[in-house]
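for ur thesis appendix - Transcriptional regulator, MerR family. copy paste whatever u need, i formatted it the way the template wanted (i think)
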Amino acid sequence: MAWSTREIAELAGTSLRAVRHYHEVGLLAEPERRANGYKKYGVAHLVRLLRIKRLTDLGFSLSQIAAMGEADDHPADALRALDAELAATIERLQRARGELAVILRQAVPTDLPPEFAPAAVPELSEADRSFVVVLTRVLGPRGMQAYSEMLQDLPDDPTAPEFGELPADADEPTRQDVAERLVPYVRALHAEHPGLRDANADAPGGAQFAEQTVGKALVDLYNPAQLDVMRRIESLLRASGPTDPT
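the 3d part is after this line
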C-alpha cells in the first residue's frame, strides 16, 4: 500500500504543510518516488507521522520530538518532564484567572497586583497610583504587605486632597502650613503600620536600590512644592522626638 502526500496527511489528520515541514526539519524521512516523480508513502511513514502528531497534541515541541529519535518506545523521562511543564502552566493560568477575577469584580487597574487591588480606590490620584505601581516592583513581601495594609485602611484626612492639588509654585507659608497639618496624619499612619519603617528591608534588589528607585519615582511623579512638603514633614517628625517613627 502506498499513499500520496495528500492521502497520508488526511489519514494522519494533519495538513500537507505540516507533512512538508516535518520533512524539512528532519522529523519525517523522505519516501521513495514513483516513476512519475510523485512521493510514495508507506505504513512506516504513517506510523511515524501519527506518532509526531500524537506527541505535538500532548504538548511536545518539534525539537523535543527530534531529541527522542525515531524509536517507538515509551519516553518516560520526556513525558514526566512535559507533565511538570504542564502542571506549572496550569498553575500559572489558574493564578492568572484568579487575578482576572479580582480585576473584573473590583474594576481595578491591571497594573496593580492582587494584594494591592483593594487599595485602588477612586481617592488615589494618578500620581499616587503610579507610585504604588513602582513600589510593587521594588519591595519584598514584607514591604508589600505593609503598604498594602496601609492603603486598604487609609483614613480620610482633609489635608490630603490639598497636598494632591498643591501647585508647583505654592509659596513657602502655604507649603509649611500643609506640612504641619499633615504631620499628625503621617504619624498616625506610621503608628498604625509599623512595618512602614523598614519597608525596604526585604527588597529583592536590596534596600539601597529600593530607596533610590522610590526616590526617583517621587521626583518624577510629584511637583517641587509637593516634594518640599514631604521634606518638611520628615523634618517635623524628626524634631518631634526620637519616639516618633520616621
